[in-house]
Amino acid sequence: DVKVTQSSRYLVKRTGEKVFLECVQDMDHENMFWYRQDPGLGLRLIYFSYDVKMKEKGDIPEGYSVSREKKERFSLILESASTNQTSMYLCASSFPGLAGGPDLETQYFGPGTRLLVL
Amino acid sequence: SQQGEEDPQALSIQEGENATMNCSYKTSINNLQWYRQNSGRGLVHLILIRSNEREKHSGRLRVTLDTSKKSSSLLITASRAADTASYFCATDRGGGSEKLVFGKGTKLTVNP
After folding, report:
1. Which of A27, A106, A113, A116 should be substituted to probe chain B, the one whose Cβ sees the most B Cβ atoms within 10 Å?
2. Which residue in B has a C-alpha nearest to residue A98's C-alpha?
3. Of A42, A45, A111, which has the smallest distance from its Cβ to B42's Cβ?
4. Pairing mode, if any, of strands A10-13 and A113-117?
5. How many beta carbons lie within 10 A of that of residue A24, not counting itself?
6. For the segment A72-92, what is each residue's pLDDT rounded down to a tens digit?
7. pLDDT class for A67, splitting at 50, 70, 90?
8. Number of H helices and number of E strands within chain B?
9. Can you tell me the distance from the alpha carbon of A29 to that of B22, in angstroms, rounded to the nearest whole number?
């Protein structure tokens, strides 16, 4: 079974703190994703990584950065946490689809980190 | 940008009844997926249907896809209390993108 783990289930931080959210997958997936989920807004993509050291901005990258030094690990960094970054953060991973082809692979999600910024 | 939009936003039924959720999307897709999320947890993949497929089954789940109407439906038959969860559709962004766009979800409550 694919396993995606996230470093914390719950996290409380203060405004201005630097926050690291860690995600690890054990299935040798090339793709990894960070989403945030807010009531009424659904899941929104923050960043996507398709290989080690490779990344793409998602729909809402402002205020976030990411790091992927090893294939199995994808970190989300809040450089200076703000109250509007209070949210549920979800990490996911997937194999790439066939190059140029129509197959888009399933995404496997971690359990989520509920972050509260005070 | 939101691609898939689920309807209804919330659905409450009795155990044993069928539950139907719908998803509409705006642009051409290669695939559409359905995911389930139990309260406060991560999402779990349920089923993927490709653009050249019209219907797919998996256990008590039946998914249909109508590309002419840009819509999909998820039917859960003989629902159980354990089916209580939020259900999301997700579509690709076209152009070979690996990224998905999720709808806002349908919150299903199955009453025992």
Report:
1. A106
2. B96
3. A111
4. parallel
5. 18
6. 999 999 999 999 999 999 999
7. very high
8. 0, 11
9. 30
